[in-house]
Amino acid sequence: MDLSQVLPTGTPADKLTLTGPDAIVAQARDLLSDAIMIHNGYTHELEVLSETEATGIWAMEDRVIFPDGVGCPFPFRRSHNFGRYYEDYRKVDGRWKISRLKLIRLWQELS
Asked: Measured on CA atoms in the order 79, 82, 86, 89, is the torsion positive or negative?
């Protein structure tokens, strides 16, 4: 699985193009383990391309909050975001798996 992110400025986010589930989990754990997170996906549009391939688009909203007293790896302690996930899926051994995920943040408020 590949994961990439684009910020509202249109530029890719530093350190957020990752390949493989282990790299994705490690990055999230390193950056966000002390954060309170609320993450929602809405109104999916799924298209089955073949018996083994599909695509999806999901609207998303999330909030990330680093409470006072915990470490924060960013120059902000709160983030509120809206965007879309663009995903590719592959059927492997009878189960659907995400093969590529791109998050484009359309709006971001940092404080």
From this structure: positive
- Alpha-carbon span 73 to 93, nearest angstrom: 39
- 35, 29 in Cβ contact below 8 A? no
**pTM higher than 0.85 for the full model?**
no
What residue numbers bound the domain in which 57 lies? 2-110
Which tokens is 78 given? 């709160």
Count of structural domains within the chain: 1
Report pLDDT for 87: 95
Q: How much is the pLDDT for 6? A: 64
- Our CA angle for 91, 87, 37, nearest 5°, is 115
Q: Which of 53, 60, 54 is nearest to 82 (CA)?
A: 60
